[in-house]
Amino acid sequence: MYLYDSIDQRLVNERVAQFRDQTQRFLSGKLGEDEYRPLRLRNGLYIQRHAPMLRVAIPYGLVTSEQLRKLAHIARVYDRGYGHFSTRQNIQFNWPALQNVPDILEQLAQVQMHAIQTSGNCVRNVTTDEFAGVAPDEIVNPFVWCELIRQWSTLHPEFGFLPRKFKIAVSGAIEDRAATRVHDIGLQAIRNDAGDIGFSVLAGGGLGRTPIIGHVIRQFLHWKDLLTYLDAVLRVYNRYGRRDNKYKARIKILVKELTPERFTREVEKEWEHLKGHEGTLVEKEVQRVASRFTAPAYETRLDDDADYEAYLALEPGFQRWVQRNVHPHRVAGYVAVSLSLKKTGVPPGDVTSDQMDAIAALADDYSFGELRVTHEQNLVFADVRKTDLHALWIALKAQGLATPNIGLLTNIIACPGGDFCSLANAVSIPVAEAIQRRFDDLDYLHDIGELDLNISGCMNSCGHHHIGHIGILGVDKNGEEWYQISIGGRQGINAALGKVIGKSVARDEVPDVVERLIETYIDHRDSEAERFVDVVNRLGIGPFKERVYDRAYT
Amino acid sequence: MTALIRNRSVAEDTWRVLQAGDTISADGDVIVPLVMWREQQPIVADRGGSTGVWLGPADDPADIGQLPVLIAVHFPAFTDGRGYSTARLLRQRYGFTGELRAIGDVLRDQLHELARCGFDSFALREDQDPAEALRAFDDFSESYQAGADQGALFERRFSRERDAA
């Protein structure tokens, strides 16, 4: 965890005071709705279907047990006893009262948290790999760079009123677990031949109405130049991005309309003036920020645990959980553990206050008091001793957090959907639940193997349906909820967008459609090693489409 | 009446903003649109009063040429952020040291950021209370990133440390 220094804290406190003043002026009628809206959005506050929604930043997904207890407290006192983890590694509260929001922010500031730039047309919370710092395939630990970007973007004076929102993701590993290819800017941390750290820079990726995979605009950006280069990209976007139509205002449209080559030239031209000037990073600053991160005190020479092997052999439930929810760690004797927030019957990403308190206690006992929020809306304990796994599993089961479905069909990403969100065309959560109920047989679920199923309630794509192996999009047809199904999308290093299989289906047909897709896959796969998405890749959507729309099966 | 804040105090405004198509008077201080500034240089050069130029959000500060004593940047809506980049370019690339004024939809809650980008003069929207607006400059006492006003926090921090040593 990055620990604030006095200036970090002061800035957050001053933002709370500023927002309190703005809210008071709004409530007393001195500040109009149109003027207040962008100010509250820049502080994560939406006016939603039922009540305001407050989105709290969890920078790059890293959170301490102390912070989680505070979030539990806020949910209990100011909300309805639960919070919702989003795909952007943040947490959202769906029921706070507007006049209480300044108090909530003050409480958050006490534990070095805030809601700065969690919404609005500005640089948003930077996101990264949930296994940052512990993944065996890691080349560069992205956390320090994420924090440097957080500081650079926080209250940036030039980029507070961009044409549209702006999202940056950083990955430092061989496998891309941060979806860098579908962000406004994706940074892939690498080392060059000389051993220097740098970044391969992608720009113009994104989901939403116009899903696009990002283009590489620079193969290698030296770490010293990270912030001046970001300034150059943002300045080109701020000056030339479209402002006439909010659906064409993201940077991806500018990159597309200019062409990636010309956009790159514009950025390079701007950067020529900024390179080496103010804001160019120095070793000392990187060291300073790095030294403010706490480092886990790993034990060395952990004994092999004979009990662990015995549990694996004797308890199929434990074995299944280890197989799906436990991940390798760069330090011998340690593993990373996913806590599934995708138990059937619980909206994906939702956690109650009591669960948060329990998770905080477990993080203290088993993972150095820290955890991460993932872009798949789960949690991760990054530093668990292998010898503790069985005890942790028992404890997580008691909290309903040990569903062994990470990477499987029921680990559904879903936005809050029409039950909560005023933008949505259709509900998401009940659809997720209906699918989870259809695939409740664990043996079958594990037999199907790796499958990402993502649901968005509208084309803003908060549920990342474009990059789901199966993507489900809620659409509105004459006031009725229908669902468009796509297949073949994927995240990661070979990110691809799914293809729509045909006409939309009614809500109660969705589980049947998913089942037919799965049956088609099972019939056609070469072996269990060939995943659903691999079969789609090999055969195209034809056989899937045929089976889904064949009347003989209805 | 629009209130003017200059160098963090309420000031009297002697400048008149002209639109394209207006006639340039021989006397008095006027701020002319960029197109007029470029196309009517002989008239501008002959004037008795001072002449400033104003830029719209899409205007490129590179097109001004000879820099006047005052440059204004127009914000058609406070949510149009292009003028922030314009200001930094004027201050940091084109070396403009004269009065840099924000005009148009200029509101209390944007003053801190505008000032950080190099504006030192603010023609507030009519409904804005200038006394209230003056408080905005102190909304934040520090900043992380470099602006037109100062370098990045780490640069200032290390230079202080060097000075102390």
Features:
heterodimer; A: 554 residues; alpha+beta; Alpha-Beta Plaits; Sulfite Reductase Hemoprotein, domain 1; Sulfite Reductase Hemoprotein, domain 2; 4 domains; 6-stranded mixed β-sheet; 5-stranded antiparallel β-sheet; 18 helices; 21 strands; B: 165 residues; alpha/beta; TIM Barrel; 8-stranded mixed β-sheet; 6 helices
Describe this structure in words.
The complex is a heterodimer of chains A (554) and B (165). Chain A is α+β, with helices and mostly antiparallel strands and 554 residues long. Chain A has four domains: 6-110, Alpha-Beta Plaits, CATH 3.30.70; 127-289, Sulfite Reductase Hemoprotein, domain 1, CATH 3.30.413.10; 307-398, Sulfite Reductase Hemoprotein, domain 2; 413-553, 2-Layer Sandwich (Sulfite Reductase Hemoprotein, domain 1). Helices cover 37% and strands 17% of the residues of chain A. Chain A has 18 helices and 21 strands. In chain A, the strands form four sheets. In chain A, strands 16, 17, 18, 19, 20 and 21 form a six-stranded mixed β-sheet that branches. A five-stranded antiparallel β-sheet of chain A has the order 1-2-5-4-13. In chain A, a hairpin with a 5-residue loop joins strand 4 and strand 5 (91-93). In chain A, helix 6 (226-240) crosses helix 8 (260-274), helix 10 packs across helix 11 (316-325) and helix 14 (429-438) packs across helix 16 (510-524). The longest helix of chain A is centred in the first third of the chain and has 22 residues, at 6-27. Chain A is globular and about 60 Å long. Chain B is globular. The model of chain B has no long low-confidence stretch (mean pLDDT 95). With 165 residues, chain B is α/β, with parallel strands linked by helices. In chain B, strand 6 (70-75), helix 3 and strand 7 (99-104) form a beta-alpha-beta unit. The termini of chain B are far apart. Chain B has a single domain (4-164), classed as TIM Barrel (Alpha-Beta Barrel), CATH 3.20.20. Chain B has an eight-stranded mixed β-sheet.
